Amino acid sequence: MDLEALFKPxxxxxxxASRTPGKIGYEIVRNLKEYGYSGRxxxxxxxxxEILGLKSYPSISAIPDKIDMVVVSVPAAMVPDVVEExxxxxxxxxxxxxxxxxxxxxxxxxxxxxERARKYGMRVLGPNxxxxxxSPARINASFxxxxxxxxxxxxxxxxxxxxxxxxxxxxxxRIGVSAIVSxxxxxxxxxxxxxxxxxxxxxxxxxxxxLEGVKDGKRFIEVARRVSAIKPIIVIKAGRTxxxxxxxxxxxxxxxxxxxxxxxxxxxxxxLEARNIEEAFDWARALSYLPEYKNGDLVVVTNGxxxxxxxxxxxxxxxxxxxxxxxxxxxxIKPKLPGFASLGNPIDVTGMITNEGYxxxxxxxxxxxxxxxxxxVYCQTAVTDPTIIAGLIIRKIKEMGGLSKPLVASMxxxxxxxxxxxxxxxxxxxxxxxxxxxxxxxxxxxNYSKIRKRLTxxx
Length: 459
Prior knowledge:
The protein folds into three domains: 1-129, NAD(P)-binding Rossmann-like Domain (Rossmann fold, 3-Layer(aba) Sandwich), CATH 3.40.50; 148-289, Succinyl-CoA synthetase domains (Rossmann fold, 3-Layer(aba) Sandwich), CATH 3.40.50.261; 292-456, Succinyl-CoA synthetase domains (Rossmann fold, 3-Layer(aba) Sandwich). The chain has 16 helices and 19 strands. The protein has helices at 4-7, 24-35, 79-89, 107-119, 160-172, 191-198, 217-228, 242-252, 259-269, 277-289, 305-317, 327-333, 355-367, 386-399, 415-426, 435-456; strands at 11-15, 40-44, 50-51, 54-55, 69-72, 93-96, 123-125, 131-134, 139-142, 150-157, 177-182, 206-211, 233-237, 272-274, 297-302, 347-348, 371-379, 407-412, 431-432. β17 (371-379), α14 and β18 (407-412) form a beta-alpha-beta unit.
């Protein structure tokens, strides 16, 4: 059965809904209502007549309409009976928030939940999760932050508290998401199921997974390879060390497995393995904002030689090597630059360059037919203004009709640089405060292009 009811339900019952702010059952109802879900929401609480202005029902069976999704937030021992009642009602998916299952040694209770759901053809997400978000349908059936920014990154996480924190981070970092799915113990719905759904989801361009372990390795490999040929998958693998693997087992009851085996699987299947959370989010921003890298030179434009060296190192560490810039580009920009500018790659326009001179070099590089991608690295100087540079880049790209090839920016400096970075990101141009983060991000686009060509036989 597909997962349509998980992402596009017409009606949602919240079992364990509460009238008390701060309680999980209250926050889920509030998030559904205030995030703008237009379907029907039914709080279920035998002690309440109304919750947040919505009529409350004593049980699922007392609800007069059909129910697609049931969100369950009651003590673990009560969950099997709630799932049974939801199945009889015709619910298609149960989102089990409750903890107290496999992660504390109660595999039997978890198995019972799944068995009861399967009798009715119902799927189970969880247990031990914070919920699910799908921004195109304005669904926030979670107890995480309410105002998730709509966008094109689907975030799947096995960790609850970390997932909620990262959910908040997407808001602060202005990274738009299509979906956020907490999968916890993965009693039924797992990463492979979600990959199969999200590959066909028009709102999703990039899939980001925080992974502790997989249930069915063979199926995960088959599905991931198929999906990677169509959309990029970024994975942050937890339990990379022996001590980390032990922590994973006590967290969600997962077996972390041998990290070397996982890394090998990721390479085979075309998954981009991020080394940490910051890198994963950086890559997700670049891959979701930008057009696909197709071919051609990567050109780096910088006004700081040291920053150019750091970029070159980071690119090489990520398997991307710079070649000399196209001759036609060098001929075009040379007369406009200081006589002591370096016309290799990186192109160092020097700290004496003006706002207009820096932007002109970046745009000329973008417009050159032999250039496939541009990395613009800017160091704040007394003769330039980062906010003016950001504004000029945005205006010129609008005049060009938008980006037809990737452009990533790094801006290094003080408070003005912070606002310039925000400006660029808000305009859909990925910008980062360090040259290493920008270089790693543009490398992820180039590496994914190679992966896709390999998987589709177009290499």
